[in-house]
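Task card 7
Instruction: Convert sequence to structure tokens.
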Amino acid sequence: MTSKTYNVVSLIRRKRDGGNLTKDEIQYLIDAYTRDELPDYQMSAFLMAVFMKGMNDEEASAIAYAMLHSGKVMDLGSISGIKVDKHSTGGVGDKLSLILAPIVAAAGVPVPMISGRGLGHTGGTLDKLESIPGFDVNLDLKRYVEVIAKHNLVFIGQTEDIAPADKRLYALRDVTATVECIPLIASSIMSKKLAEGIDALVLDVKHGSGAFIKDPEQAKILARRLVDIGTEFNKETVAFLTNMDQPLGNKIGNWLEVEESIYCLKDEWPDDVREVTLLLAGSMIQLGGRADTLNDGIEMAQATINNGSALKKLREIVIEQGGDVSVIDDPGSYKPASHKTEFTAAADGFVSAIDAYQVGMASLELGAGRKEKTQPVDPSAGIVLHKKIGDKVKKGETIAVLHTNKQQQFDVALDLMNQAYSIADKPGEIKTLITHVVDAKGIRDFDYNEVPAL
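Output:
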């Protein structure tokens, strides 16, 4: 915390005009906002200035450091094993944390997972977990340590003690159109993850229509910055760049994604979800010291699916954190949304492209996301996809089913789905899912030949 005070308007103006701020100036802004001495409207102006003008490497490191040290940095040294977490930069239908965390914990690697809520057009792990009746993500830090020690896994949200500045800025960015900004994304991710008490981190940096960073080259820059911050703090960090040009899996929305995750843990999963989940889980198991190679880690991850231990781990953590395990055992018992309607093909042909962003916005309109930071989400709202890129369709055939408790939202959601789907005479190109790897050695193309287990 800096003791010096600054003229906030002058700092905003300098950043607005493309100037740079010092570490102390950035520290002052973050401290003042955390202490409620800086109002939302001024922080919003600062965020927009950063969004428009960017930050240099020193500024980006300074904001990450300030947010990390705005609260408590956990020490999990009392828990045996190498503690490893995973973070995704966000995508449509990205429910991977719900699947891979139980897998990795079942393989013997402790996973201290502090997650966020929905941001923009993407869903949040906490919102998905809270769609399980009774599931408590608001554990205090003493309980956080107890649950990890007992189960090798915990799912919580940011407490007031863990990177409180990030928690506030995260919600503000969501409603001020300042989400897609590399310095802000990097500082948000790393302040939260470094505060958890982890030893290593695996990152899923997405690019494409459904990602916050759509350009693959910009995604590489973000991945490099994230890895650099992790390395600077002596945490072994690896990032995989993955394609988000269409939604991941077949279900979008909070409970719908939990439901799909349950079936994935029963080895009944879409190919794209399986591929990325096993890659990330295998990497976590390798960094956690349980496997010598990435391929061995992937094989161990699949083994936890085959022997049922990953699904058992999910049941354990749901029970431990107060959730109703009956909906895990029987997903069909969950109360569905009161209204549903079909989105159908307007012509014969093939699905040639899907704008995942528009699908995410349709899900938000149905109630699965937020338009303002205090707005609740509808756990049962969302979309079930029946057709994805490359699939053949006939006129009038169901492409997706929309679920909501707000029947009046169907028109706007259907219009967004019409904008999202392209039907053509030929199938669209299904792009490679995993494109690059970034670690302390640099960036390189991902080589599927090195991981035959995928």
